[in-house]
Amino acid sequence: MSSLFFGIELGRRALSAFRQAIDTTGHNVSNVNTPGYHLQSPILSSTDPYAMPSLSQTMGAYQMGTGVEVSKINRHYDSAIEMRIRELLSTQENYNVNAQFLSQIESINSLQSGVSQTINDFFNAFQEVSNNPESVTNRTVVIQKGVALSQEVNYLAKTLINTRSDVNDYIKQNITEANDLLKQVRDLNSLIKVVSGAGDAPNDLLDQRDVAINELRKYADVQVSDQANNGIIVYIGGRAVVQDDEYLTLTGVPNAANSNYVDIKFSDDLAGPNATILDGKLKGLIDLRDDTSKGLLFYKQQVDTFASSFITAVNTAHTAGFDLNGVAGVNFFSPVVAAEPALNMQVDAPLLNALNGPSLVAAASAAANVPGDGSNALAIARLATTAVIGTFTPSDFMAQFVSNLGANVKDINAKKTATDNLMIGLENIRDSISGVSLDSEATYLTQYEKAFQAAAKIVSMYDGMIQDVLDMVQ
Amino acid sequence: MRITNRISHRILLNDIQNSYDLMAKYQHQVSSGKRINVPSDDPVGVSRLFWLNSATSQITQYMSNIDIALDEMKGSSEYLDSVQDSLLRVKEIQIQAANGMNTQEQLNTLAYQVDAILKNLVTTSNQTINNKYLYAGFKTGTVPFTPTYAGGFINGMTYNGDVGQRNIEINSGLTVTVNFAGDNTAAPGSPGVFVDTASGVNVFTALINMRDDLFAGNLNNVTGVDAPAVSSYVTHLQSLIGMQAVQIDEMENLKDNHTDDKLFKTNLRVSIEEIDAAEAISNLSNQEVAYKAALQVGSQVSQITMFDFLK
């Protein structure tokens, strides 16, 4: 048998429940724009009913409802879609970082017209020497054109080297940022485990940890496995980097065999193997820097191949000839520097002497033919249409270099666009499940408010009834 | 699908961004005038442009080379024509001498005339063009013919040049020899202008001998030996002049071909590299309108929520 106060308790429970529901609605509305926020819904359920004891049965003939409570606050989280988004984040950042740096490279002016122009000018200048080998002017011009070409090649090499160095610095910076995120994840993880262990649902902490993990995914393809009490273990390349209140950082270790650019290793094993990172910014940057089939190193090697083959071909032809003094030709370009051919390409010092240099251009094919014979100069000029670099003429080689770079950038941009569009689609699906709709929340607000008002009326009514009873006994 | 606020904002933002990107791209095309601003705009096109630029540059060079070759060959042509004219004069002298009615004094006068023509010929053989001796082979800085004297008259010629053939490239892999050596004794395979050992002619000795024979009154030699020697030389000279004329003609034709080729390649380059201005500007205008529409719609739709209507 229940009492009037049972009714007031009913009302009180309802008021409390609806107030909490409105609080949650308010929390949702406040966080409509918070990144990583997942919609929270208050789950209202009836409180445990009372079994009324009766004469012949211990279990109730009927059950009394005892009101309402917010049994839990549900976090709308679809792990399947979240996992797809998480995986795509790494790929997206990988493409982003590649597109960014490669676009920089392809914008440099040398590639547009500079190299092509200076190659043509150089060979045309030798044609002019061939036409008039006696002319000091023509000889001076061909030396100048040689200098111009060398400078273009130097600039190209320098830009590629500097960009590789920039990428290396960027890698170091990203390692630091990733390590900060690892610490953040560790801190949140510990807190979540404590809160969950105490029986509470740490919805907002879970949101924050998910945001941190997603940020981490941008750097590397971290894997996550679940533990008790909402805890997680985070892995990079098979090694656990966040586990049980500990975290392991990454370190960039300079590699002397690679111009002292850094390799990414785990901080507890600096002499060990590199961390296996297969996607994300770090992977993208490492590939950009070191990949020999399509990264910056590849392009630098191409420029180096151009320089060394070009220098060798011109020098071979030049030393076969005779200069204006009837002396056998010296090297036109300084001999190839094996370590950095393109960076060091230059016209050889004797030719740069303003007074004596021009006469050193070896235009003639025999000492006796000086000065009227320009056939050796013609032979050099004809290198323009000769397969000097593998099966390519100099101009064709640079053409395929530039074209290759362009195709690569175009490809990356296309992949980036496709990935971005896919990401938008996935995020929309996730927000469809987990996002806050202001209109819905407004509707719920009205609903809970009306219920609250009704509950208040009930309390008021019971209060009146109690008063009536009290009035009965004076 | 349940649409939430973040979704509609994301879609709006993405559409506006894409619209703006496209607009920026068209803007750049119009302001630069180029369809290809970076290699990734058209990787295949870029490769073709490289080749076209290179080919056009070579054609321009060949045309310039042809001009240089023509300068020398036409110059030489004129000199050789003047030599031919001088030798006509020698023919007249020889005929006059041969009529048997001249006194020795008259013969001497004719001899002096021959001598004058000889001296002229020496000057012609040492002509230059662009500071180069035309008929010296490779020894373009050295005077090719130096006369030796006896008793104040030229009695022999020394050739200081060589038989080098100066070649100029007028098309890919194709050269033309622009010069004739003055004296081809060292290498009878190529023509010699004034002394050609293969054809057995030597204009200098022919004239020296005729002059001396006139001074000596030896009319039999003048008619029987000297005149035929001069005739043989004239025949030789004419064949050289003819050869040169043909070459000049061919080069003029080739130059025309190069001009056409260059025009064709230039047009091709323009069609690949440059924008159609009308089309690009029209694209830009359309895109600006689309962008503006996206902005306007976005600003209107996203303002309303139910909270505006709750009391």
**Strand tally of chain B, please?**
9
Number of helices of chain A: 11
| Estimated helix fraction of chain B | 55-70%
Largest interface: A-B, 64 and 52 residues
Proportion of β residues of chain B? Answer: 5-15%
Strand-and-helix sequence of chain B, N→C? HHHEEEEEEEEEHHH
Query: Numbering strands along the chain, what is their spatial order in the largest sheet of chain A?
Result: 5-6-7-8
Number of strands of chain A: 10
Report the total helices of chain B. Answer: 6
Largest sheet of chain B, described in full? 3 strands, mixed
End-to-end Cα distance of chain A, whole Å, is 25 Å
Largest sheet of chain A: 4 strands, antiparallel
The whole-angstrom Rg of chain A is: 39 Å
What spatial form of chain B do the alpha-carbon principal axes imply?
Answer: rod-shaped
Structural class of chain B: mainly alpha
| Uncertain stretches of 5 or more adjacent residues of chain B | none
Mean pLDDT of chain B: 91
Tell me the series of helices and strands of chain A, N- to C-terminal: HEEEEHHHHEEEEEEHHHHHH
Describe, in short, the structure shown:
The complex is a heterodimer of chains A (474) and B (311). Chain A is an alpha+beta fold and 474 residues long.
Question: What's the layout of helices and strands?
Answer:
The complex is a heterodimer of chains A (474) and B (311).
Chain A: H1 4-30, E1 40-46, E2 50-51, E3 63-64, E4 68-75, H2 79-106, H3 109-131, H4 136-197, H5 203-219, E5 223-226, E6 232-236, E7 239-243, E8 246-247, E9 250-255, E10 261-266, H6 280-290, H7 296-319, H8 349-352, H9 375-381, H10 394-434, H11 438-472
Antiparallel strand pairs in A: 1-4, 2-3, 5-6, 6-7, 7-8, 9-10
Helix pairs in contact in A: 1-11, 2-5, 2-6, 2-10, 3-4, 3-9, 3-10, 4-5, 4-6, 4-7, 7-10
Chain B: H1 5-32, H2 43-98, H3 104-125, E1 128-129, E2 132-133, E3 145-150, E4 153-159, E5 167-171, E6 174-177, E7 181-183, E8 192-196, E9 201-202, H4 203-216, H5 219-273, H6 277-301
Parallel strand pairs in B: 7-8
Antiparallel strand pairs in B: 1-2, 3-4, 5-6, 8-9
